[in-house]
Amino acid sequence: MNMYLIIAAVAALDPMNKDNVLKSLEIMWKGVLAIFVTIAIILFVSWAINTICNKARAAAEKKKAENDGKTDKKQ
Amino acid sequence: MDFLIESVSQVTWQNVLMWLIGGILIFLAIKKDMEPALLLPIGFGAILVNIPLSNVVNEITAEGTVTAGIIDWMFEIGVEASEAMPILLFIGIGAMIDFGPLLSNPKLFLLGGAAQFGIFLTILFATMIGFGINDAAAIGIIGAADGPTSILVAMKLGSQYLGPITVVAYSYMALVPIIQPAVVKLCTTKKERLIRMDYNPVSVSRTTKVLFPIVVTLIAGLIAPKSLALVGFLMFGNLLRECGVLRLLSETAQNILANLITLLLGITIASQMKAESFVTWETIMILGLGLVAFVFDTVAGVMFAKFMNLFSKKKINPMIGAAGISAFPMSARVIQKMGLKEDPSNHLLMHAIGANVSGQIASAIVGGLIIGLVLA
């Protein structure tokens, strides 16, 4: 329904305006697509970095705890 | 005695109207505490540049030579020639932002993206009522809810409405506490507004916080290179903050640099508020379109949060979506207040801050995307 309204409104415009409206529709679909693609990539990469960093930190802490345990036993 | 009334005799009703507008902006800044750091300099500047024969704006002498006025000079050097002022302000904004709440709940990134939809819809409406594509795009970016982005996009696209766009953008940012609650209430049910969101942040390592600005710069730059002036400087400011070895520079960016640029930017923008170019029907249309942009950004953010709830086990309070516009940190505070009003034990601030800072990044990227798409 809304799409028909937009098409009807575009058809009623003068040619110069029509070009601008069509360009704005093009900007809309390309812009919305591009922002979601960019955001999705940033989301995925930052999640991956944080997960890897947290796992590495946990592993380092575990290793350190094991080393501390071994040192205690030797003493 | 003519020399005494030389200036008075040249006052037009448009000048008087601009003095009134300047007075209203100063009143809103002082009495209502609405974006005082910007509305006060803009308001005073509006009075300053609308006094006939004022030497703060460029004067054309009888011989035809142009004498530089200080405000026009600051505009030419600081905004027109290099867009330096709005871009440098982004270093300060970046240094102020803690992306921790966003990084501990990355799905909030999507809300920042969704809440930019009003920008595109406003561009469509603006072209339908007769604005050219460059002006329409510059008007639409008012929905970025971010002054420097609006100024930069309007400048890059060569819009003739820089003054009205800037004033409207900052005015609506100041009106977020009035606009957003009404719109959010219209798009949500009482039950949705009561959705509880516990804050159990995932720990975010320092390495992640340091890598984040670099990664965002690379990704945004590779997809939307025209956004790099904004995103790059925003992320540079954030890197200063998170690196941990440049505390003094970070504090300077957050305070001295940001304050200095804000002070100069406000009065510089006033150079675009001369009566002959400001008192027009187009300014009133831009006022209306700016409101459309803010309203539909808010609606899109809320609706997208509802859409996300269809797929997630942990429900999101849809009000959080409204904070996806980048009026930082005002929008997040508004949502926190609304949440507490519905349920005094439901604290939404950290979630709203996450969506809000995501909106800050997304709006800068959208600014660059629009420049690229319009000039393509």
Question: What is the overall pLDDT average of chain B?
Answer: 88
- How would you characterize the largest beta sheet of chain B? 2 strands, antiparallel
What does the average pLDDT of chain A come to?
81
If you compute it from the alpha carbons, what radius of gyration of chain A comes out, rounded to the nearest whole angstrom? 28 Å
Major β-sheet of chain A, in short? none
Task: Give, in order, the helices and strands of chain B.
Answer: HHHEEHHHHHHHHHHHHHHHHHH
Residue share in helix of chain B: over 70%
Query: How many distinct folded domains of chain B?
Result: 1
Rg of Cα set of chain B = 21 Å
Assembly classification: heterodimer
What does this structure look like?
Chain A has 2 helices and no strands. Chain A is mainly α and 75 residues long. Chain A has one domain. With 376 residues, chain B is an all-alpha fold. Chain B has one domain. Chain B contains 21 helices and 2 strands. A two-stranded antiparallel sheet of chain B has the order 1-2. In chain B, strand 1 and strand 2 form a beta hairpin. Chain B is globular, with a radius of gyration of 21 Å. At the A-B interface, helix 1 and helix 2 of A face helix 7, helix 8, helix 9, helix 14 and helix 21 of B.
Which key terms come to mind for this protein?
heterodimer, A: 75 residues, mainly alpha, 2 helices, B: 376 residues, two-stranded antiparallel sheet, 70% helix
Q: SSE layout and pairings?
A:
The complex is a heterodimer of chains A (75) and B (376).
Chain A: H1 2-11, H2 15-74
Chain B: H1 2-5, H2 13-31, H3 36-49, E1 59-60, E2 66-67, H4 70-80, H5 84-96, H6 100-103, H7 109-114, H8 117-128, H9 133-140, H10 147-156, H11 162-174, H12 176-187, H13 190-193, H14 206-223, H15 228-243, H16 247-269, H17 275-278, H18 281-309, H19 319-322, H20 330-342, H21 349-375
Antiparallel strand pairs in B: 1-2
Helix pairs in contact in B: 2-3, 3-16, 4-16, 5-10, 5-15, 5-16, 8-9, 8-18, 9-10, 10-11, 10-21, 11-18, 12-18, 12-20, 14-15, 15-16, 15-21, 20-21
